[in-house]
Records
---
Amino acid sequence: MNWFKKSSKKEEHTLPQVLEYLKKSGDFLDFQNPQSPTPYWISYFRSLVDAEIIHRDILPYLNKTTIKKIEELKAALPIENVMVTSDLETIRQMMLSGCVLIRLNEKDQQGVLVKAEMNKVREISIPEEEFSVVGPKESFVESITTNLNLIRKRLPVPELEIREFKLGKLSKTRVAVIYISGIANEENINTALQRVGEIEIHQILDSSYVSQLISDNDNSPFPQLIDTERPDRVAGVLSEGSIVILVDGSPHALIGPTTLVKFFSALEDYFLNWQLASVLRILRLIAVSFSILITPIYVAVLNYHYELIPKDLMATLISSRDFVPLPPFLEALVLELTIELLREAGARLPTKVGQTIGIVGGIVIGTASVEAGLTSNVMLIIVALAALASFTTPVYKMSNAIRLIRFPFLVLAELWGMIGISIAFIFLMGHLLRLTSFGRPYLEPIYPPRLEDLKDAFVRLPFKTQPKRPVQLQSQDTVKFSEKAAKEKKDIDE
Amino acid sequence: MKVTVKEQFLISPYLAFFIVHSMQIGVGVMGFQRYVATYTEQDSWLTVMMGGAAVHLVIWMMYKMLNKEQGDILSIHETAYGKWIGRLLTILFIIYLIAMGITVLRTFLEVLQVWMFTLMKTWVFTFVYLIAAYHIIAGGFRSVVGVCFLGVVVPFYLNFTFLAPLEFSNVRNLFPILDHSIKDFIVAMKPMTLSYLGFETLLVFYPFFKKPETSQKWFHYGNLFTVVLYFYLMLITLVYYTPDHLRRTIWATISMWKIIRFPFVERFEYIGLATWTIVILPNICLAFWAASRMAKRMFNVTQKKSLIFILVFAMIVSPMFDDRTSIEKLNMMVSQFGFYFNFGYIPLLFFFHYFMSKVRNKA
């Protein structure tokens, strides 16, 4: 099949041939401008180029003077991104990314490339997934340039380094690895650069592509990189020594290395006072364990360990289950699946319809199934609470993982009761112990235990007590600010 | 002979605290009180402390040898006896480690079969449990130590549940104090020290510490913590049970859970036993890890292969012990071996190693 390749190469020998090839696309323009004193040729992709730039910044200047040489043409234009070249590959690439090619004659081998790309971007809006009542209301958009600007604005230091890659054979997506040199650990930086650099894929549509391609263990249900839409969160973790990856076309930045507990910290925790923030964090962790464990415990208790429940409480449970024909496990499974269905339907439908479906589905199906005697109302309460609790996770991908791991717990609870739940816990524990993020332990600061990092894990202690960067990130410069000034104490009446 | 381990697999010395504690707490805790109290009755709390002191001494000896050797039991044996006898004795040690893992798993399962699921099939549970163990051990020593750490931290709340029996206990059960002869104490020391077994895995994982010498302090602290815990349990058992009642109670610790009562939970032993599934995990993981590690050191096989071999062996053997007497026999055998190994063989080895290393240095 060699001849096939050759024939496509053949066309690239001369510039006119290249243009001829590009003309096959309907949105490619190549014409001579007859009005100007110099009859130059201009060619570009209509769909990539901003017509306003051409009419305002290019054409008027070319129509003013007569131009003999291509250098004069370059000098005539008031734009700094002007390039004289005869390299066919560059010309092709640049035109495909929004450049205008200007030649003096139709058969010229040389042309001037002027950047006139169309920049249609979404306006910066408020964060939707990670909304916070207090704090900044900006969120990332699809354009990587805007996103980088949002980060740079918050960290105006020359040490903030950005390494760019072009990934994807077809999509040629810009991917930027961002870190603060001198703070981020060299090993982490190298891991990130190496993994991103080695990506082999035809197309990158979103940062989650990158996240899946570079995570340490892609068989794990747990996300190993935090994805966030908040530039303030990104600026915060950069200054701690994390590494951030931005992908053009994606409003989500990736943060690594990270740990399990960080997925349960919302950015708002840092905007509130530390007591409230700590309580909220603990509440979230309790909610997650509740969400995973409560249905399995219910099934285990009703199946095997009814002695566990005191007599009075047992009476309530029994009377609510009195007419239910299904065993607890099936009852739980049916309800869990119903809730998952509602959630999935709500996520797929447009917002307004989705809300209605959620309410109608939740209330109508719930009440009706209890009244029909298919499920007990205690079970309904438990499952609904568990679903509600799983929504408290600030990072969406983590709440998906929690949604998933509930089911093995449920099955093992059906098999061996409480012991089954313990066994499931052991599997989970073993899995989490082995998991890493950019080669750093995922379960830190629980294991390996690090007291310094526990100050900002299950609780968030005051800023003054944390003058050092997290041990987890192995930062080169461990000191955030001087401890002495922060800890200055005064005696009474002094 | 120095054994070196790659840097990224090393662990911090302070984790020795959790390793030794998690290894010592296993199935023994559930019913050690009866065996000790047979001999020293109300004075058993003293036996607990004496046993702990003896263990401290043995740990000290082990560290003396290991510090000199900077290796593991294989290097000690080879210095002491030369290559062939040394290897033969190490094989015995490996068999002991495997037997220890099997014993813990089988005994715990027996408790489950008695207390919760009478009809539970031995092999099914063993199979699932060993898959979990394989998953953890395959993560290397770091994840095994992680299990040791979590195996201490996660079930820690259980220690507070033992306060509940105090409501119904009587301090007068402890009197008269010190009413037994020294001979009684010495006899009672044996069943007591059995509950402390497990720390001998140190002879395998010593080279995995960063600056191994510094871990000795933490190892002793860990043992001390076990002593305190046993002391606490023994004291509560003694004031709660009358001597007669204790003699008839096989699993004194579990029976104490029965009286805990919350507005939403009764019969706490179900929750206690479920948590205990996590407590015994370090025992099994570390024992099998150590056995497979020694097999790797000796026979030039990959640790993965030796581990799978050991787990399959455990899988086949466990269901063979299918009644109380055979399990009791297995327990007796392993603990007898462990007792003589730690308190008879280690001191002997200590002196022998001391002389032999002198001799070899001169030569």
---
Amino acid sequence: MSDTKVADIPLYPLRKIEIVVLAEDHLLVQDLLKAAGVGGWTMIRDVAGMGHHGFHQGKTIFNDQSGLVMFLGVGEGKVIADVARGLSRLFESRPGVTFLSDVQVMRSDYFAKANA
Amino acid sequence: MNMHADIALAERMPTRTEVAGLVGLASRTVAPLWPLESAIAVNPLAGFEDMPFARAVQIAAQRFGARRSLPLPLWRAVLRTGRIEERALRDAAIRHLGGSLAAAAHIAPGVTALDLLLARMVQIAPENAPEQVGALPPDAAFIAKWCGAFFDHGAAATPMPHRELGLYRAVLALAGHDPEYRALAGKAGRDLLLQVPRDPLEAIAEGLVEIAGEADELEVLSSLVARLPGWAGHIRWRCEHADAELVAGAPATMADLLALWMLLARAGALCEGHGAAPLRENVADCLAGHFGLELDALARGALARLQAVANIEEDALGAIFMAAAEWTYANDLVPRLQGASRLGRQGVQPDAQLVFCIDVRSEPFRRALEAQGKFETLGYAGFFGLPIALHPFGGTRRSRLLPVLLSPQHDVAETVVEGREAEAGQLAEIQQRNAAGAQIFTAAKLSAGMAFATAEATGPVAALAMMGRTLAPRLATRAQSVLRKRREQAFTPALHGPGRHCGFSLEEKVGYALALFRLTGLGQDTARLVVLAGHGGSAVNNPYAAALDCGACGGHGGGHNARLLAAMLNDPAVREALAEHDVAIPQSTLFLAAEHDTTTDEVRIFDRDLVPESHREDLARLDAGLARAGQQNRVRRAGLLGRSPGELLAGAGDWSEVRPEWGLAGNAGFIVGPRWLSQDIDLDGRAFLHSYDWRADADGTALTTILTAPMVVAQWINCQYLFSTIDNQRYGSGDKVTQNLIGRIGVVQGNGGDLKVGLPRQSLFKDDGTPFHVPQRLLAIVHAPTDRVARVVEANDILGRLFGNGWVQLVVIDPETGRASRWREGEAVPGEGRDQHSLTC
């Protein structure tokens, strides 16, 4: 899609956070997103990839808690910063990575802060 | 506004998300605790698995106020039974002292350091450390009391009000009326009830600012979680594993529990934690006296060495015993498996193949059955790879029939078997009538005005029923058995169903069927009968009945899963698709489902009506073999329980029986390999057996699955038995005699307190108080090329953690070289691992 066409669409600037953690830690991240008031997020299970400790497999067939999961969340800058602050405490003792970036979304009401 | 917190401190107050992260991490201090109806084994120290085993045990012992090992007198009792070889004990002691030179160090003429250590271990009277039993301190008792009221699961006639607000806010609303709270927290506590934030995360944040000071916040929260491991574990189960509708009426998180602790902490109402360990006295004198030595007469070096041995804590001596128990087991088993590996397979085409659960109780039964004829047996996870939840006919709640490592992928409805509609109707009517009767009885029993009248009216009937169960328990068992059999004939889990219980697609069925072949190495040249045998136990009036059922089926019997997979494997469309995956099952093969009752050693084969005439003789032969195997195994098990085989059958229906079977007590090994590897070895019911053919698994996918799922479940079981044995009060549930059920979710000791987290004393110890279960870590033995196993372990974090930190000991028997190698633990001395010598010293 060309920039010209995008310019015709009303877009709203927001912040995006991507978090990759061990599947067994996914509830820790979910609790944190809820505490920050993130209204919704996407979770991608069975993420595989290369890391400090070699190649990480996706999940195995009889264990949902092995492997890695990735969270994608979008929200106001303050909310996402709050999530990142909470993650920094988690990552003191648990493995994981997080990425923050600026994004634009079409329906800003989809990303409104939930009631905490 | 909180009057207790300094406003200037607000800048340092953690945010809600920071607190959420800290609470989440702190909650890992305890393991989830499943309710009794679906009790499954968990490692009470699961949150410490990131640490090496010895360090984890030490830190957890401090946190929970628990012992680190079985007391010395009990280890000595184990030694006397021969389950620890004296040679292995000596080797373990030498290693503890730092090697042969240090062990041979001179103390006095004819006395070495090793002599001193061995004397301490097996001869000198140990210190009499009192068993730490007793009531909870007032702060913990207060929170435990409100947890009991809040989490009653519908058992109370008058439920606690305000439960919909959540645990923390509900207690805040009522604590002001509680004299116990007033006595505990005083005026400051009363003021706090009005001032503290109603949001638990904010309340914790304020509390941390006020009480943590320079202390690590996570440490503070973790210590508080550990004060009531039972209730904290129950909350973890509710948040992480329970169906949402089951817990919706009474929401509770770990933040709720910690906010309550914070309330007490800010009111200055926290009591002292666990007391310090008793001091050792005069051990050096005793040691010297034992050898007729004068301490003053010893040379300085000798005195220092004696003092060093005297200073070894008794828990450390226990750890040496445990190492010796592990070596005794490994030294006996590994060489025999190596020998079998070198000889290779010498099989014949079987008349029937039976796939049992990997459970340690399957092994002696399988061995007995194999001796009865041409029966081949295999081991597979007892849920048969089906991630299902069953909606029982006429039931209101689904049962999760899968390991807790998984979430249900299929909701399966129990439906009426075609042609059995009339019988199903009768049974449904009986079920409804019983449920209604129970409801009326419960309501009358709990009613203030009717309670005594109900007791008067129903007492004689109850007395008759009790007498019947007492005097003729087998009659009661038979009546139950008939009803159960009728139900199993009339209802079946449906492969296809209406509404949301829509069953399985063809692709899914093929996938589950293929998994059986790929993971167990079952070849496509199947026998005329292939029986998938789940298992369950039989017990009445036993809160721990579910613990005797199949752990892989979430603490339920495995029959439903077996019936479903058998139906899939008999489906012509599935067989056609399997053939495209190089699994061409002979047309003559019929799959059947069964359930092995581990208490009575009877095997019920389901859906007999579907067996064609052509297979009736095969089935008759199998029936006869199963009956003989059951009889043989009952004799063996009866000996272990000190009773007759007939008493075993009676015990299954006896309401006063506290030990209907030994369960998984004694578990010690997990063998991954073909059955022919272990077939000629009496494994004594101590090994989980997962069938595996390394030749059919070139990329290691099957091995990965076996080690990351069934072995993990086996490790949980092993650790539950291990820790419940070494400290039955802290990590187990104590004596059954003094237990009481609470809220249909667990047991407490006496009339209240924390939920007990582990196994009862009767599941682990004999009546004379000596341990039946030997607390030792799981030994996993894998029959596969060493490099392949190494690749699998290194690619999976969970395996690196369990093997590297010594929670499970791994030995690989390479089928190509016959060589046995041991996986080196992270803290092991380089060079002592990955070779067989490390096993035999």
